TrEMBL record:
InterPro entries: Restrct_endonuc-II-like (IPR011335), Restrct_endonuc_IV_Mrr (IPR007560), tRNA_endonuc-like_dom_sf (IPR011856), Type_IV_Methyl-Rstrct_Enzyme (IPR052906), UCP031853 (IPR016984). Keywords: Endonuclease, Hydrolase, Nuclease. This is Restriction endonuclease. One of its GO terms (molecular function) is endonuclease activity.
Amino acid sequence: MGVQELPESVFKLCQNTHGWNELGDLRNYTTTDAIRQAYIKQWGNAKPSRTSNAVAIIRKFRDSIQSGHMTITYNPELRVYHIGEDLGDYQFRDDNNRVGEYANVRQVKWLGDVPRDTLTQSTRNSLGSTLTLFSLSKPVMSELLAVLHGDVPESPESPDDDEALVQLKDQTIDQSHELIKDKIQSLLPDEMEQLVAALLRGMGYRTRVSPKGPDRGVDVFASPDGLGLTQPRIKVEVKHRSGSMGSPAIRGFLGALRDGDSGLFVSTGGFSREARYEAERATVPLTLIDIDDLANLIVIHYEQFDVEGKTLLPLVKIYWPAE
């Protein structure tokens, strides 16, 4: 195969798939819904989006890959990409004929290996998807084939590659931020009050959440001693799934504040321009926090969260190479 003779499609298959052995022969399922129901029966449907992704990948593995398509998989121990040509033959192997632990297999003619270190940063980024099976773009295909045939880029690292890495980092941070906001938005109103209290405890305060019922505009109370005998005395109003807050809500909250109090108004639905103006001209300290601000504060102080707070919003730390 010449370097310029690109195949119609290139698919990357990750090694972390469980192989769907429990589904048996994938050719037995004539519709997507049949695959979905079989998948749910085996592994449940606690996360519907993950189920939909898995079903789509199963269909791709069985139907989308055709004879002549390239298949790429990665060996993280050796840091090489194995590149092969699919022979167009999906097979189901019984227990005595499995390939390793896998019953659902495709025949591939392996063409060679491409070391990851020989690729540009942009191509490495494209190959780093966590999806089990996904298609690659033509520029990535071209570079992989070029390296496979001995045309190694003169300088795998370039200023453009550095910029691509920075962009990938920014995209990853932005995506994680939105996912955290999704988790926050999924909480119930009383759980949101507990989360705000956990945040304040992570910031060094002692808190008290008001019991259900009339709270006169105060859902959470926080102070250094927990009794309000030392300042700041923070009174918090939490509005969750209530839409954007307007100026009347701000004025009502201000009416619950007394001399020496500081106000914190949390609204996952945001605030109107009039509401923000009302807060700016307030005669007592008042801070408005929308869901974006809340997510940022949680990330900053999460390591200081107690067990209750981390249980409400489980997060994991992701490490990134230093500059």
